[in-house]
């Protein structure tokens, strides 16, 4: 017994007529007759009494109708809710702090214009945790700083940014060499962050090693400390651009400094993509 047979059976019981049931269900009379024949063979008994111009349920048919009616109604309820099931779960996003504080809000707003039914759940994590949560399916998509070489992910570079050195507005020197920078009090992001790794890799390649006096997972905490005159920090330019333009921070040029980082979007290759996630991923291919 399958769902289609149950629907046909119920419609015949409702109309007392094979032809009317076939018309109502947009089926041929032959298809309806075959479905009932198969159902009666499976039940091992006659379900309809054939009259001259109509049919009526046998006692076995009446019993079957009572049993299958709740099942059909449950199927119909699920079918009616299917369009909404796609809309209900929010798109779960893990993001690095740099992208979350700069371009991600505008990106989500842009997507919402064409997809007003979309909802988002955004959490900010370091790259390692974002990747771990994506791997386990806790999030649908991740934005990280840097590159990822992992076969289980689809990756898309959507932006890049340069790293800059910032100081308090009254900092006297406009330019420093790298050794001079490393002699100053440094306020850096925590070990393992993309900004810290990019800076340390650059410094080590030049034959040096940084020794920060302040480390933080919060870029804004570093900005506040820099403003207060505790030292210099290395941060994404896009994160401090407005405060530089407003004179609340000053950018210090570093000799032979060319340091950039990528923003990469990731999804799992093997994971089912909802319609919203598929549309969002498609939009990301138009970014940058």
Automatic annotation (TrEMBL):
<dbReference type="InterPro" id="IPR036388">
    <property type="entry name" value="WH-like_DNA-bd_sf"/>
</dbReference>
<dbReference type="InterPro" id="IPR000847">
    <property type="entry name" value="LysR_HTH_N"/>
</dbReference>
<dbReference type="InterPro" id="IPR036390">
    <property type="entry name" value="WH_DNA-bd_sf"/>
</dbReference>
<protein>
    <recommendedName>
        <fullName>HTH lysR-type domain-containing protein</fullName>
    </recommendedName>
</protein>
<dbReference type="GO" id="GO:0003700">
    <property type="term" value="F:DNA-binding transcription factor activity"/>
</dbReference>
<keyword id="KW-0804">Transcription</keyword>
<feature type="domain" description="HTH lysR-type">
    <location>
        <begin position="1"/>
        <end position="58"/>
    </location>
</feature>
<dbReference type="GO" id="GO:0000976">
    <property type="term" value="F:transcription cis-regulatory region binding"/>
</dbReference>
<dbReference type="InterPro" id="IPR005119">
    <property type="entry name" value="LysR_subst-bd"/>
</dbReference>
<comment type="similarity">
    <text>Belongs to the LysR transcriptional regulatory family.</text>
</comment>
<keyword id="KW-0238">DNA-binding</keyword>
<dbReference type="Pfam" id="PF03466">
    <property type="entry name" value="LysR_substrate"/>
</dbReference>
<keyword id="KW-0805">Transcription regulation</keyword>
<dbReference type="Pfam" id="PF00126">
    <property type="entry name" value="HTH_1"/>
</dbReference>
């Amino acid at each position: 017994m399958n769902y289609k047979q149950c629907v046909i059976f119920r419609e015949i019981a409702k109309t007392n007529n094979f032809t009317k049931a076939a018309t109502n269900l947009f089926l041929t009379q032959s298809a309806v007759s075959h479905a009932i024949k198969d159902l009666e063979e499976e039940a091992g008994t006659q379900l309809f009494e054939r009259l001259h111009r109509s049919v009526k349920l046998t006692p076995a048919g009446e019993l079957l109708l009572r049993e299958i009616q709740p099942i059909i109604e449950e199927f119909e309820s699920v079918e009616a809710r299917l369009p909404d099931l796609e809309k209900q779960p929010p798109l779960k996003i893990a993001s690095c702090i740099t992208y979350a504080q700069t371009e991600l809000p505008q990106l989500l707003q842009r997507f919402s214009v064409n997809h007003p039914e979309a909802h988002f759940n955004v959490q900010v994590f370091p790259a390692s945790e974002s990747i771990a949560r994506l791997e386990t399916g806790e999030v649908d998509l991740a934005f990280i700083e840097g590159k990822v070489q992992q076969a289980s992910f689809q990756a898309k570079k959507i932006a890049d940014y340069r790293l800059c050195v910032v100081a308090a507005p009254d900092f006297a020197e406009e330019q420093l060499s790298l050794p001079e920078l490393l002699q100053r009090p440094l306020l850096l992001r925590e070990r393992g962050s993309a900004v810290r790794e990019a800076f340390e890799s650059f410094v080590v390649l030049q034959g040096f090693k940084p020794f920060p006096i302040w480390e933080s997972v919060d870029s804004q905490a570093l900005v506040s400390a820099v403003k207060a005159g505790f030292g210099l920090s290395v941060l994404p330019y896009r994160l401090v651009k407005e405060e530089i333009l407003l004179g609340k921070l000053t950018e210090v040029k570093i000799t032979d400094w060319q340091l950039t980082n990528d923003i990469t979007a990731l999804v799992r290759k093997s994971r089912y993509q909802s319609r919203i996630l598929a549309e969002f991923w498609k939009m990301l291919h138009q970014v940058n």
